[in-house]
Automatic annotation (TrEMBL):
This is Pyrroline-5-carboxylate reductase catalytic N-terminal domain-containing protein. It comes from Kribbella amoyensis. It holds the Pfam family F420_oxidored. Keywords: Oxidoreductase. Residues 2-93 form the Pyrroline-5-carboxylate reductase catalytic N-terminal domain. One of its GO terms (molecular function) is oxidoreductase activity.
Length: 210
C-alpha cells in the first residue's frame, strides 16, 4: 500500500518505519525538508514536501501535533478537497498537559471538517510511539487492540490492514462521532499512567463486564 505521511516526528517515525519494514511504500513529507529526508533515510522510505505526501498515498497519515494540524491541512490544500476520496488517519491527541484534560474535544471531527471528501479514521492514538516501534505487538499473550472510529467502510478496511501489519488487532469502535470518546479515553489513560496506574487492570473481561 502507498502511504503518505504528513509530519516527520515520533509517530511518523514509529508507524512509518514499521510499515516500511512490512513492505508498504511510504513517503514522509515534512514542514522541514531536512527532517523529512533524515527520517526517510532512517526508516527506508521516500521523502518530500507535505504536498508530495498528500498526493502520494492510497492512505494518508496525519502525524503532527494537534496544534499543528490545522496549519498542515491548510498547507496541503485540504480545505479545497486535496485529500478527497482517500482514507486520512488521525492519530492526534489534544491533551492539556497542565491537568491532562482535553484541550479540543473533537479533533477527528475538526480534521474531517478541514478535509472535505476525505474518509477520516481515528486510530493509533491510545499508545505512544515506543509501543508502535516494538515487535511483536503482543502483551500478556494477546495482540494489542487498536480502536478505529470512522464512517467509511472502505477506509476502515484499509486501516485495519495497516493495524495488522504492525501485529495489532483492529477493533471497530463506531463512527467518527465516537472519535471524541476515543480522544477522551486517551486523555484519561494518560492521566492514569502518569499517576502510576495500570489502565489494563481497570476493565474486566467481557464475560464479567455486564
Amino acid at each position: 500500500m502507498r502511504i503518505g505521511i504528513l509530519g516527520s516526528g515520533r509517530m511518523a517515525d514509529a508507524l512509518g518505519g514499521r510499515w516500511a519494514q512490512a513492505g508498504h511504500e511510504v513517503l514522509v513529507g515534512g514542514r522541514s525538508p531536512e527532517r523529512a529526508k533524515e527520517l526517510a533515510l532512517r526508516i527506508g522510505s521516500q521523502h518530500g514536501t507535505l504536498q508530495d505526501a498528500a498526493e502520494f498515498g492510497e492512505v494518508t497519515l496525519l502525524a503532527v501535533s494537534a496544534e499543528a494540524a490545522d496549519g498542515v491541512l491548510r498547507t496541503v490544500g485540504a480545505p479545497d478537497g486535496s485529500l478527497a476520496g482517500r482514507p486520512l488517519i488521525d492519530c492526534t491527541n489534544s491533551v492539556d498537559q497542565r491537568d491532562l484534560t482535553l484541550a479540543e474535544p473533537a479533533m477527528a471531527e475538526r480534521i474531517s471538517e478541514l478535509s472535505p471528501g476525505a474518509a477520516v479514521v481515528k486510530a493509533f492514538n491510545l499508545a505512544a510511539d515506543p509501543v508502535w516501534r516494538s515487535t511483536p505487538q503482543t502483551f500478556e499473550g494477546r495482540p494489542l487492540g487498536v480502536p478505529l472510529c470512522g464512517d467509511d467502510e472502505a477506509a476502515l478496511v484499509k486501516v485495519e490492514e495497516l493495524v495488522r501489519a504492525l501485529g495489532g488487532e483492529p477493533v471497530r469502535a463506531g463512527g467518527l462521532a465516537r472519535a471524541r470518546l476515543l480522544e477522551a479515553t486517551a486523555a484519561f489513560a494518560i492521566g492514569i499512567w502518569f499517576g502510576g496506574g495500570d489502565t489494563r487492570a481497570l476493565f474486566p473481561p467481557l464475560a464479567h463486564a455486564f
